[in-house]
Amino acid sequence: MTSELRQRIYQQLASVELIDPHTHINPLDAGSHTLVDILGYHYYTELAHSAGMPREQIEDPAISAKEKVGRLIEGIGPIDNTIQYSWLIDICQRFFGFEGDRLDASNWEALFDSSEAQMADAGWSDEVLRRSNVKSVFLTNDFDDPLAGFDTAKYVPCLRTDDLVFHLGKPEVRQRLEAATKVSVGSWTELREAIGVLFEHFTTNNARACAISIPPSFAPEPVSDGRVETALDAVLKDGVNSDESHLRALSHRIFWTLAEMCDQYELPFDLMIGVNRGVYPTGVFQGQDLYDSRVSLIQYQQLLNAFPRVTFPISVLASVTNQELASYAWIFPNVVTNGHWWYSNTPSIIERDAAHRLEAVPRTKQIGYYSDAYKLEFVAPKFDMYRKILAKVLEQYYVIDRSWSEERAVEFGTQVLRGNVETTFKIS
Amino acid sequence: MTSELRQRIYQQLASVELIDPHTHINPLDAGSHTLVDILGYHYYTELAHSAGMPREQIEDPAISAKEKVGRLIEGIGPIDNTIQYSWLIDICQRFFGFEGDRLDASNWEALFDSSEAQMADAGWSDEVLRRSNVKSVFLTNDFDDPLAGFDTAKYVPCLRTDDLVFHLGKPEVRQRLEAATKVSVGSWTELREAIGVLFEHFTTNNARACAISIPPSFAPEPVSDGRVETALDAVLKDGVNSDESHLRALSHRIFWTLAEMCDQYELPFDLMIGVNRGVYPTGVFQGQDLYDSRVSLIQYQQLLNAFPRVTFPISVLASVTNQELASYAWIFPNVVTNGHWWYSNTPSIIERDAAHRLEAVPRTKQIGYYSDAYKLEFVAPKFDMYRKILAKVLEQYYVIDRSWSEERAVEFGTQVLRGNVETTFKIS
Amino acid sequence: MTSELRQRIYQQLASVELIDPHTHINPLDAGSHTLVDILGYHYYTELAHSAGMPREQIEDPAISAKEKVGRLIEGIGPIDNTIQYSWLIDICQRFFGFEGDRLDASNWEALFDSSEAQMADAGWSDEVLRRSNVKSVFLTNDFDDPLAGFDTAKYVPCLRTDDLVFHLGKPEVRQRLEAATKVSVGSWTELREAIGVLFEHFTTNNARACAISIPPSFAPEPVSDGRVETALDAVLKDGVNSDESHLRALSHRIFWTLAEMCDQYELPFDLMIGVNRGVYPTGVFQGQDLYDSRVSLIQYQQLLNAFPRVTFPISVLASVTNQELASYAWIFPNVVTNGHWWYSNTPSIIERDAAHRLEAVPRTKQIGYYSDAYKLEFVAPKFDMYRKILAKVLEQYYVIDRSWSEERAVEFGTQVLRGNVETTFKIS
Ligand SMILES: [Zn+2]
Ligand SMILES: [Zn+2]
Ligand SMILES: [Zn+2]
């Protein structure tokens, strides 16, 4: 039903091989095994839960994969309007030959069985990548990930640092750090050394980014050596019960140190700004986080000025922050707009956020999209949603409103979709 | 001039009989008597005032209905672009056979006279409901409303609680409470008992919701028995001049108690979040309130977690809060999106707010619209504005962008427009 | 590629002669001399810098105009997607006969030479006005501008007051004030007298507005005579190092005094709300400012109530504030919406901001656009961008969605584009 112009732009964008610059794929187990790996994605469990399905029923540890899928199908009717549901149907059609537009009691079981047989193939993950037109995906690795046993050109490591910045008060995090680095962390000097070991390990293994997700209240600033020593002493002694001021000082200094390491090791530092964790603590797994949209990039003013050589691909959780993101990317050479994150990853929001970035940010400084997928099968439907919106925006705001040629629009879309991933993360 | 597809979707939505889940209709005097009841609506007086008409001229108590309409017609030219003006013309055309598209010196007087004759008919209110395709409307009842003398199936009671939560410092409010409940309010135990009597009274009389409008700074939290006793003592003694901390503690505890009663009596609790009262104190009647858009639903985190069995249909005054509303409804089972309120009740805002809700919130958890009308004649034009926008969004984001069938789009729209009102408020 | 309807609306809007109600034109040197005056505009230097061009290269004082243009052309490729780039191409096509859609190494030099010859004509500025269909432009004059040597009907003075409100702590500002007014500023009485002299000077010279740009944290309130005397004493003694509370008290009182003078001299007071200066201090000239979008018009509640006879044309920097702006203009008689400022001056933002104003604010209280230009050549492409968007919004939201006639839509657009500039600023 879309115009022929939009369809042509879309088709040309769809032919571009993708590099997905942010996922949570497990490279040792990248594809799904049964439909439960698809339907168990938090988008379906949390939406079904929100629509009335009890958590106990969803998260019952005693049931089989098949039974769990059966239960979720029962609870999923009320969410068939959502864009997330459309990803599910896309996957079933694209990979498993499903022909309907809704999964229900009448058809899910046959699909479960036939798809399970397909996924059992040893080459399934590669088959998914091939059919999705995807060359490689970025990972989200814990800092103590050995990064072993997979092809880091296809599954590109990325150092995730939330634990270091926000959870070093927990003894188990410090123990993991010491185990991973062989550095005993008793002083700031040692802690800094340990962080350096992590960067050495990651960059040696083809890591292409450092990344972190950040609550709306965070406003990083430099912390002196003396202050961080005091803070670290307190945290080593009292852990998560340390005074808030000590925990904050330590967080800020570790964060600052990560930026220094990114500078030294020439890694982009992905900032994902705005999430409040555990707002709904009795929600389903991964369905408990929300946000306060009252956040500003002015909180990052000092950081952006202090590290002119570090590239900061920035994602924002709330669409209201998108204009600031575009404006900061328009002024600061080291700010790059990055994808459409989580609660902003729905069509009407992407449409307006993308439209503004495209018109206001240098074309070289926009990473159009990442899938944030946990299983490979989700890369294709999510990127396809984005490509359709990108085609719509290019059609309406460029070819129609600004009289661009179709070729010029496609060239621009291609750069945002693929080219800038290569240049920003130095993928050859 | 709209597409045939959009017109077909619209026509099917227009055939759905409506239940209006929030109005300020007086059930004993529901329809209008002369055009002054239409033109006296605050939207016209405040916009005419904003465009230059002095308040004294508008609110002169010495003039007749007809003279007041004549004066307003003189001042209303500069607002003929607004969507509110379009409701006025819709009413004049729909109910009174008006054929123009602007009211002016040349035509208002004839219309005043002919419409007055029509409205004098004893069955006028029912006629308006019939022509508007409306089955029933929810009311906004003061807590001491006797709820007598009308059909509560057609005019559904709703307990409005602003006075209890925000104005109990005023002696007249406490006197009204004591008079309505026959409970002498000298202690927290008694105050709580009095509130219980109100819920008993309202639910016995078919009330279907408890409701409140809330300033942006409000952040409810539980208050202990000891603390509320101290606060109430202070407020009984010093009234509205009590220390701010006492007034706040009492507000919070009464609010919390309302939520407990909603749980006990199985009433949804409508929260209308974001209004600052009296920002422009010399404005016309009901044209003095504005807002601060810096508000977050994170302020309601504790409440939403504490009352999992209470349904909270939430309205937000500023469009910037709409994404949070959709996200909270996507995660919290007890949050339902509710209508498009006041300063967000204009087409371009509704279009983007509705588009995001439709794509991100379970289809069962969205109440599309309420009219907020003071007179029955406004239900039809306001809902019609919404239906047209809903048809536009369903056409563009679903049938065109996502290849939905027209039937599926209409079914979805119908649920949002009508079905969810029935299920949320338990209308049989 | 736009519809015929939209083109017809646009053509009719394009035939309206313009008055530009806010620019930074130098009336003694209004047009450009070479392409460097065009390409040196901060939009191009800051975007090229953001895309990777070093500031030193851009701002090298040792190079010629032509060499600078050559350098900028080298760095400008990555911004050819931006709307700002489209203004550049529009200028080159409109005024200099350029026929391409991109400036590059192959064509800039010929254009530089041929355009320089054109601009050398003594009547160039008038020629630009004529070809741009512009009758007059408002200026932004320093408070000590002699306002001499130009036709104030064509170049309309406007008193810019940022220095008075925010920089009176600097000795050079006080010296400029004393030199301009012949009043020695040693007390509040004298300072107030000096401000009065400025208003006398400006209104005598056909000034049509007082204007100021304001940071997001500003929340003006009245300050007593005693308090401002203390504050001024401190500031006269310690300058910019005075205690923050003294600087703020003085700012607030001067600001309040400007409003009083606007009342007395019947000047509109343009408020441009939301800019943080120097966020990126190592950015290029005029490319260092950004913002915090967390600002509310509730901060201006006292002011708007205190000065009912002063018209406040208000611009907001962040689009999120646009709904508040429209709501405040809908309620307060003295608030007028004014243009689309700076970071909100891009098509997708203007489209949604304008759509909401048009539907919610009295038609007499909306100033559609101003160019903010530093050189006359920019007035035409910026207004043309706006006219195209205005035509799009009128087509879609009025003629299509609301069944307005084309004539009515054009009439409304014309008032917003031109008529309201005349009435608001009393241009005969
Ligand atoms: Zn992620
Ligand atoms: Zn209401
Ligand atoms: Zn300006």
Structure characterization notes:
Chains A, B, C: Its EC number is 5.3.1.12. Chains A, B, C: InterPro entries: Metal_Hydrolase, Uronate_isomerase. The structure is a homotrimer of 428-residue chains. Chain A has two domains: 34-119, uronate isomerase, domain 2, chain A (Orthogonal Bundle), CATH 1.10.2020; 126-424, Alpha-Beta Barrel (TIM Barrel), CATH 3.20.20. The first copy, chain A, is 50% helix and 9% strand. Chain A contains 18 helices and eleven strands. Chain A has helices spanning 4-14, 35-39, 42-50, 55-59, 65-75, 83-96, 108-119, 124-131, 162-166, 171-181, 188-204, 225-238, 244-265, 301-306, 322-331, 347-360, 379-400, 406-424; strands at residues 18-20, 134-138, 155-156, 158-160, 209-214, 269-273, 275-276, 290-291, 312-316, 335-338, 366-367. In chain A, the strands form three sheets. In chain A, strands 4-5-6-9-10-11 form a six-stranded parallel sheet. A three-stranded parallel sheet of chain A has the order 1-2-3. In chain A, strands 7-8 form a two-stranded antiparallel ribbon. Chains in contact: A-B, A-C, B-C. The interface between A and C is large, with 39 and 41 residues. One zinc ion binds at residues 22, 24, 140, 372 of chain C.
Q: Helical region count of chain A? A: 18
* Tally of structural domains of chain A: 2
Going by CATH, the homologous superfamily of the largest domain in chain A would be: Metal-dependent hydrolases
What is the fold-level CATH name, i.e. the topology of the largest domain in chain A?
Answer: TIM Barrel
Largest interface: A-C, 39 and 41 residues
- What is the SS-derived class of chain A? alpha/beta
Unreliable segments of chain A (pLDDT under 50, ≥5 consecutive)?
A: none
What oligomeric state do these chains adopt? homotrimer
In what range is the share of β-strand residues of chain A? Answer: 5-15%
CA radius of gyration of chain A: 22 Å
By CATH, the architecture of the largest domain in chain A is named Alpha-Beta Barrel
Ligands in the structure? zinc ion
Number of strands of chain A: 11
**Biggest β-sheet strands, sense, barrel of chain A:** 6 strands, parallel
Which CATH class of the largest domain in chain A? Alpha Beta
Helix content of chain A: 40-55%
Along the chain, the helix and strand elements of chain A come as HEHHHHHHHEEEHHHEHHEEEHEHEHEHH
Distance between the termini of chain A: 38 Å
Give the overall shape of chain A.
globular
GO molecular function, one term (chains A, B, C): glucuronate isomerase activity
InterPro entries (chains A, B, C): Metal_Hydrolase, Uronate_isomerase
EC number (chains A, B, C): 5.3.1.12
Pfam families (chains A, B, C): UxaC
